[in-house]
Amino acid sequence: MYRTHTCGELRLADQGKKVTLAGWVQKSRKLGGMTFVDLRDRYGITQLVVDAAAPAELVEAATSLGREFVIQVTGTVVERQSKNPKMPTGDVEVSIESINILNKSVTPPFTIEEESDGGEDIRAKYRYLDLRRPPLQRALALRHRLAQEVRTYLDGQGFMEIETPYLIKSTPEGARDFVVPSRMNPGQFYALPQSPQTFKQLLMVAGYDRYFQIVRCFRDEDLRADRQPEFTQIDCEMSFVEQEDVLNMFEGMMRSMFKNALGVDIPDPLPRMSWYDAMDYYGSDKPDVRFDMKIHEITDKVQGHGFSVFDSVEYVGAIAAPGCAGYTRKELDALTEWVKRPQVGAKGLVYIKCNEDGSFKSSVDKFYSPEELAGIAGAVEAKAGDLVLVLCGPKRKTQTMLGVLRIEMGSRLGFRDPKVFAPLWIVDFPLLEWSEEDGRFYAMHHPFTAPKPEHEKWFYSDKKEDLERVCANAYDFVLNGTELGGGSIRIHNADMQSRMFEVLGIGKEEAEYKFGFIINAFKFGAPPHGGLAFGFDRVCALFGGQETIRDYIAFPKNNQGRDVMIDSPSLIDDTQLEELQIKTCVKE
User: Fold this and answer.
1) Non-local CB neighbours of 448 within 8 Å, separated by 6+ positions
2) What is the tens place of the pLDDT at every residue in 218-262?
3) Is 498 helix (H, G, I), strand (E, B) or coil?
4) CATH, residue 176
5) In this structure, is residue 36 part of a structural domain?
C-alpha cells in the first residue's frame, strides 16, 4: 500500500502509530535544525517533521523537496509542540523515518493554495493543477454529495434512472444546436440534445411513469458566468400527474438536498408567486426575495404635472433604497450613468431624497410640490432616510430595468447574503410570447408545454389578444434570484400538439419532419404527464454560495466556449474532412 492514512485523517488519538502517507508537497521550510514539510492530498494537510539528529540522507532528502513533488513517507505520529487550531490535523505531526520521492515536479505556474496568485486564464490553462486547490476540491465534493442526494431521494420515490441518446435530430426553438456530421450518412448531421425533452415524453408513452436522469445537455449560445456550452440537468418526468403533484414531489427533493447537504431547513410549503406578480413587483421572473425593495407603479401620481418625460410614457415605476438619502450628487450622477449602460438600458434616472428631517429633495423639484413628492414617496413605501429611484417607459421593459436596478442596490446594501436561502415557485407564466419583429408567436418555454385547462378556450381562438391571455401549465423553481429549475405539464394529445405547432407558425410538413415521431407516439395512448429539469451546475454553485458555475465543473469552457487546457475546439485534418465529405469555407 502506498498509504495507511490520508493527509486529513490523523488526530491525537493516533499518537504513537506508525503510518505511511502519500501526497503532494504543499511547502517545505527549515527552522533551526528542523525541516518541516506540509503534505497535501484531497482530504487535507499533515505536517511532517525531520529532526536535525536524523540520518544525513533523510535530512538531505527532506531539504531537496520542491513544491508539488509527489512523495511517500513513513513515520510515527507525535503531538505537535506548536498546535494549529485552524487545521483538523493541527494537533499532530508525523516524525519521518523514510522518504520516497515518487515523482518530481517542475515549479508550478501559480501557488496551489486556498488563495492562489494565478489569474483566471493561467489557472484555466493548467486546470488539473487548479483542481488540487481546496476551494475546487470542496466544490466538486459538494457536487458529488448533491448528486447522491438526488439519486437517493428519487430512487426512494420510485423513479428509474434511464439514459437517453446524445446523437439526435435537430429541432427548432430554443438555442442553436451543436451538430455532428455523420460519416455513414454523407451530408446529414446529428444534433446534440439541448435537453432530453422529447425522449422523456416518449418514455411516458412507453409506460415508465417515473423517470429521471442526471444528464449532459448542449446549447450553442453566447456564454456568461452561469452558462456553459455543455451543462448538466437533473431531468425528471412523471405520468398521471397534475401541477400540484409535480411541485410537491420536487419541493420534497430540494428540501431533502438542503437538509442533508447543508443542514438547512427551507419553508414547508414553499411560497408561490405568479409570473405577473413577479414582473410587477420585482421586475424579473426569477425574483430575489431575500430582501424587500419592491417595485411600485406611480404613473397616476406623476403624470399631469407638466413633466413631459413622465407624461409621454406608458409606465412610471420606482423603488425605495433604504438609508440612501445621503447619496451625494457625484454618487447619484454615477448611478444615473450606471442605469444608462446597455445591460440596463434606461435613458435616465429620477430621484427623490426622503431626508431625515422630513423634507424632500428631487431632481424634478420644479414640477412637483413637497406635498406631491411626499405622496410619491408614500406610494413607494419610502421612509425617512430612503432614496426613491424612478424609471419610465414601456411597462414590461421598465419593470425589467427596475428589477436590474433593484438587484444592484440590494448588492450594494449587503442584502444578498449567499448564506441566506429564499426559494419559491413561480407559476402562471404566459404560454406564448409575441414577437413584433417577426410577427409571430414563440413558446415561452417550449412547444410541448400545455396551456392551463381553464385557458383552453383562448388557446383555440384565432384572436391574438385571446392567445396572449393563455397561461402555461408551467412552473419555475427560483432561488436567490436564479432560476434553478423549470418545467410544465406537457401536451399529451396529438390534436392539441398540432394546434400548438399551428400557433407557432410551424407548418404541417415541417412539424411532421421535425416532430413526427412524437406526434405519432401521442396517437398510441399517451398518458397525462409532466415534469421539470433543474440546472445541476447552478444548484451546486448556489448551494456553495457562489454565483459562477465554473468552479463546480471539473473542466469548464471559457467565455469564448474554448477549453484552453486542451486547446479545443480545433481544426481537424483533411483526411477526416474527406471521410465526412465536408469542405470548410472559413476565411483567413
Assistant:
1) 197, 198, 201, 488, 490, 491, 497, 500, 518
2) 999 887 667 899 999 999 999 999 999 999 999 999 999 999 999
3) helix
4) 3.30.930.10
5) yes
Shared domain for 391 and 431, answered yes or no, is no
Q: State the greatest distance between any 2 C-alpha atoms of the chain, in Å, as a whole number.
A: 93
**Could you tell me if residue 585 is inside a domain?**
no
- Among 141-145, 320-324, 464-468, 577-581, which stretch is predicted with the lowest mean pLDDT? 577-581
Instruction: Specify if 456 maps to a domain.
Output: yes
Nearest residue to 49 via CA among 17, 81, 22: 81
What is the enclosing helix (H) or strand (E) of 76? strand 70-79
pLDDT digits (tens, 9 = 90+) for 34-74: 999 999 999 999 999 999 889 999 999 999 999 999 999 99
Predicted pLDDT at 588: 55
Angle between helices 536-543 and 134-156 (to 10 degrees): 120
Instruction: Dig out the grid coordinates for 260 from the structure.
Output: 442533508
- Is residue 38 domain-shared with residue 95, that is, in the same domain? yes
Give me the pLDDT at residue 173, please: 57
Contacts of 466 (CB under 8 A, 6+ apart): 458
User: What CA–CA distance (Å, rounded) separates 204 from 213?
Assistant: 14
Residue 440 and residue 503: Cα distance in Å, rounded? 8
Regarding whether 460 and 378 lie in a shared domain, the answer is no
What gap in Å lies between CA 308 and CA 216, rounded to an integer?
52
pTM exceeds cut of 0.85: yes
Q: Which domain holds residue 304?
A: 291-412
The two beta strands, 423-427 and 440-443, are unpaired
Residue 99 forms beta bridges with which residues? 73
Q: Which residues pair with 476 in a beta bridge?
A: 426, 486
Cis ω for the linkage preceding 109 (within 30 of 0): no
Quote the pLDDT of residue 172: 61
The pLDDT tens digits for 66-106 are: 999 999 999 999 999 999 999 999 999 999 999 999 999 99
Cell readout for 55 is 540520518
What pLDDT is attached to residue 33? 85
Tally of structural domains, the chain: 3
Decide which of 259 and 494 is more confident: 259
* Summary count for the chain: helices (H), strands (E): 18, 22
State the amino acid at position 275 in one-letter form. Answer: W
Q: Domain containing 358 — which CATH number?
A: 3.30.1360.30
What the block records as the C-alpha cell of 80 is 505537535
User: What pLDDT, on a 0 to 100 scale, did the predictor assign at position 226?
Assistant: 72
The CA angle 430-432-437, to the nearest 5 degrees, is 125
What CA–CA distance (Å, rounded) separates 540 from 141? 10
Compute the residue count for the chain.
588
Residue 334 burial by Cβ neighbours in a 10 Å radius (0-12, 13-18, 19+):
exposed
Three-state SS for 155-166 is HHCCCEECCCCC
pLDDT average, residue stretch 12-16: 97
